[in-house]
Amino acid sequence: MNDDVRSEERYDCVVIGAGPAGLSAALNLTRARMRVLVVDSDRPRHAATLVSHGFLTRDGVPPHELRRLAREEVERYPEAEVLQRCSVASIDVEADADAPALRFVTRITGRTPSLSRSVRSRTVLVATGLRETLPDVPGLRGFYGMSLFSCVACDGYEMGSRPLALIGETDDLFRRALLVAQWSPQVTVFTNGVARLTPNEETDLGDRGIRVERRAIDELEGDRGQLTAVRLRGGERVAVTGGFVRPVWHPIVDFLASLNLDIDGSGHLITDRDGRTSLPGMYAAGDVTAPGPQQLIVAAGAGARSAASITHDLLGVAAG
């Protein structure tokens, strides 16, 4: 064993990420009598969001409160340990002659030297989620999470039938505009002079009463987080009361580069239906995997499912 790997720090699973996927997995693993270490960077993507929706029994709870409650539930179990404000620098696969099942070595960096460590584990679950790059629009961050959102299913209901903006620079705005129109018949798509819509797509949107504005956005107007208008290059103002943005998402997988895991064209980890990656013993859950509904409850379910797979695999018991 390498000298920098503390012999007493051995786990059944290291869970990387403490969002709903990671904490749900950790809770279910500890209840299966597994020893679990959770590594939490404490930098959630939804930090700007004031209220979360769609999570049964927790609808309307702030995301940070949901995370706090979940973390406290996990920490009540003696089998679980949560390292906050820590990140994973790298993961290696190597044999330990004394404990060959402990094949993963996870190197952790913390906010203080005492929190930095290397540990061994039988398995690893990656639940690091996504980073996001927002459209290049002046002032956008001043409204993000308050009257501009990225998840239509999460926040569309509160937008009612008010005039809404859909702002994006990617080429999938046609499909997203159709989704937004489910919640409001008054939608304007702003491409910021970047995103491309085909003539057929623009005609289809127009037939549905959805306006497409191709000019660049000069500025967003509003007060205290409440969006009131989009001002276009040239001075025209389009009145809106909120809306949605289409970020570009980047799976947080840099620390896995040396493992050559299978990923898709967007960098998401490819897994089977139960969260197994292409490397035996390594699992993934939540938004870091192939795209799907980006809802907290969906991620929590994926974490629970991966925990069941890990438990069955470690015991050598077929799921059923």
From TrEMBL:
Keywords linked to the UniProt accession: Flavoprotein, Oxidoreductase
Coiled coil start-end: none
Residues annotated as domain FAD/NAD(P)-binding: 11-303
Source organism, top-level taxon: Bacteria
Catalytic activity: [thioredoxin]-dithiol + NADP(+) = [thioredoxin]-disulfide + NADPH + H(+)
GO molecular function annotation: thioredoxin-disulfide reductase (NADPH) activity
InterPro entries found in the cross-reference section: FAD/NAD-bd_sf, FAD/NAD-binding_dom, Ferredoxin-NADP_redctase_2
Name of the molecule in the record: Pyridine nucleotide-disulfide oxidoreductase
